[in-house]
Amino acid sequence: xxxxxxxKNLASSLSITIIMTLLGFLTRKVFVDNVGVEYLxxxxxxxxxxxxxxxxxxGFGTSVVYNLYKPLAERNEEKIIALLQLYRKVYRFIAxxxxxxxxxxxxxIDFFIKDAENLSYVSIVYFIFLFNSVIQYFTAYKWSLxxxxxKNYKLTTINLVYQVGLNLTKLFILYxxxxxxxxxxxxxxxxxxxxxxIVKKANQLYPFIQTKKKFKVEDSVKKNIVTNVKALFxxxxxxxxxxxxxxxxxxxxxxxxxxxxxxxxxxxxxLVTTFSNQILNSFSESVGNLVAVEKSDHSYEVFKTVxxxxxxxxxxxxxxxxxxxxxxISWWLGEEYLLGITTLSLILLNFYINNMRNSIQTFKVKSGxxxxxxxxxxxxxxxxxxxxxxxxxxxxxxxxxxxxxxxILCIGFWQYPRLVYKYTFHRPLWNYFKWYITYTFCAxxxxxxxSFLISYILVENKLLQSIVNGFVTxxxxxxxxMIAFIKHRPCISLLTYVRTVVDNVRxx
Length: 508
Prior knowledge:
Elements: H1 2-34, H2 37-50, H3 60-74, H4 77-105, H5 122-135, H6 140-148, H7 156-176, H8 180-205, H9 219-243, H10 246-253, H11 256-293, H12 296-332, H13 341-355, H14 358-366, H15 376-395, H16 397-410, H17 412-425, H18 430-454, H19 462-485, H20 489-507
């Protein structure tokens, strides 16, 4: 059942991602041409600024999913209802706190925009973004139930309609009206519709949750939730300092326009991150179930396979993007939207370092390891923010990007695997880094060979150049990895898993 659910989640997620990617490129092009790169930067900046108010959630959502695993596995409806009733109440308080905090933050918004005088309607935009941040808290508990039960594929149609409808409507507005505010209002209205549809779907899948009867969560479970949330708050705070301060620092010290240029690159890396996460996340809820019911030896063997898959996806995408992104952006937006090779290298190095942790982070979260490293993410985030504020004055955006990667190497790079290997697998940590180093060495060989080959292939048409670069890169990576890993046990296990999935799908 775990295998089949993972396959269904993967298929549904990838189909939506592909459609979203194509529409995303088109929407971004029309946005830049009709609204301007400054407002593109404003989008990214406000998302990051308002990210601070979501800290009030404090990792509560992660704890929600974790505590639902067992009652869902046991089909204990009373415990499920009790947890959902508690979560609904807490999320409403969180929403109220977010609104209050955002109102207090509002008077200082111009401080974070170096050239705010060039932008109009900042206040209106701010409150639309706030609305989008708050609305999700009123339905989050029901989405968490579907997520914990490995039924995300049930939302495929809803997400597909949402993505296609939203992006086509945004394209129409941008092209015919060039009205940025109307663009944001439509986005907010579609968000309301999405949340309503998820609620209806959850009620359909789990009709028992609509009961008006009150159920109480056990004191021991409440205590566990409180403990985890306290720990996860520091994780959330550290995560904010890591992932939501870069745009703020760049906007404050370099300029909102640079944030817009940078956002074009993060759009692409974000899309490939989403793509990779869809594959890995299709296994994540299965991992939660696996850790709960299986012995550590079996969990460890599964992890090695997932870690290898993690490497193949992330290294492949990192090398591919490095080789194709420059000619692609030149064709897509124009050469004036290009960033330097050093900046590009730092972006993709950070992408690799950060996303190579996905598999170990999944096992950490699904194992319920929250309190043991509660201060580590905060320390990592503080290092990133402090170093960014120092280096941005000397190296600009490159200094901010260097700070991000350096802070991960200082803390998260080794801390996550240390905890999982100690508390979940009960094995020496060297086993993890042995394969991490081996994998990375193979990736560097593939990068070197592919970059060397494409340096001799020059095509005048930029789109054709990116396609040729992509083809050469795929072939080079495929050859290197085939030679290196054809007899690698996790590779064999992965291929066996794929065959099992295909057979199960055929039987269905």
